[in-house]
Write a structure and sequence with these properties.
2 domains, 46% helix, Arc Repressor Mutant, subunit A, binds S-adenosylmethionine, Rossmann fold, seven-stranded mixed sheet
């Protein structure tokens, strides 16, 4: 049997087991940490890890350690990805076990969203203080201004706008601006900051980065500043942001390089401890954008955090 055929047999063998099929169905919704899969499947960690190992060996899922957590996601391209999608499309949508898994995952997500919402609501008033704890804001902001370019921008969209810092930084170079955030408390603080800065054509709107409802290709500058590491599905957020970027427009993502500061999970609700170069450029490419720059700014205080600024562009039509 040829190597390619053997790979198909291995993949089918790995997928051909009820728990592993359930895992594939769950990972089709989003990347998940092992402990989250254990909760949804109601199975022990050694058992779930064994299944995941087999799926990874067969090339159906990717494993990526992130601090003390280990995440898994479905492979996104190639024969294995096609095979998974074919197998999953044939599952019975009304299957009781799969529906229960799906409901449990929805509950786990809702719990996460509530925790995050409470965290941001609690910290909205002192966010500007917390935000600058680990990095030199002035250095990062100077690089963001460089990455954005002089403008003027027709439409700036800031996703996860928080207290509005990116809007007050880039708003003066933009004809119109929109900040979108899930937290009403953050939006309230942002409204006063934007008013203080005299940005008349800047709107603040309640909304979810996973479904912004903004028109396709409607902004020439989109920014996601220190938001992705809180999210359940950062790849989907990048995809949604990219959808809004107009031909010739730019997406700037600011987040951390991979780090090991586990306390940020416990005390500050981070889900991911940074992002690798590879995953970010792949998400951007999958979303139709070319990464044109990726700058790294190590923290001056030796805390181990490096801020990354990724700039990506949609080619002009
Ligand atoms: C760390 S703050 C960053 C805010 C701002 N970009 C800054 O750098 O100051 C993260 C923000 O993302 C928002 N956020 C989290 N999940 C979101 C989602 N799904 N959709 C929109 N905003 C979200 C939070 O409410 C919070 O205001």
């Amino acid at each position: 049997m040829s190597l390619a055929s053997k790979q198909v047999v291995d993949a089918l063998r790995a997928a051909g087991e009820p728990t592993r099929l359930r895992i594939l169905a769950l990972l089709a919704r989003e990347e998940l940490a092992v402990l989250e899969l254990c909760r949804v499947l109601d199975q022990s960690q050694p058992r779930v890890s064994r299944h995941l190992k087999l799926l990874a060996e067969a090339g159906l899922v990717e494993r990526f350690p992130d601090g003390a957590w280990v995440f898994y996601r479905l492979v996104s391209m190639g024969q294995a990805a096609e095979l998974i999608s074919e197998v999953l499309s044939r599952l019975d949508a009304s299957d009781a076990v799969l529906s229960r898994d799906s409901d449990r995952l929805t509950a786990v997500r809702a719990e996460r969203a509530t925790e995050a919402g409470e965290y941001f609501a609690r910290n909205a008033a002192r966010w500007d203080e917390i935000r600058s704890l680990y990095v030199s804001e002035a250095d990062v902001e100077a690089k963001i201004l460089d990455a954005a370019g002089p403008g003027p921008f027709r439409r700036l969209v800031d996703l996860g706008s928080g207290t509005g810092r990116m809007l007050t930084l880039l708003g003066p170079r933009s004809e119109t601006a929109l900040g979108l955030d899930l937290s009403q408390q953050m939006l309230n603080v942002a409204r006063s900051h934007v008013a203080d800065a005299g940005l008349a054509r800047c709107e603040l709107r309640h909304g979810d980065i996973f479904g912004t409802r903004l028109p396709d290709a409607s902004a020439d500058l989109v920014v996601i500043h220190q938001v992705l590491h809180y999210l359940s599905d950062p790849a989907a957020a990048v995809g949604e942001a990219a959808r809004v970027v107009a031909p010739g427009g730019r997406l700037i993502i600011v987040d951390f390089a991979p780090h090991r500061l586990e306390f940020l999970r416990e005390q500050h609700n981070h889900r991911r401890l940074g992002f690798t170069e590879l995953e970010m450029t792949r998400w951007l490419a999958d979303a139709g954008l070319a990464t044109t720059a990726a700058q790294a700014l190590p923290s001056a205080d030796g805390q181990g955090l490096t801020v990354k600024i990724w700039t990506a562009e949609r080619s002009a039509a």
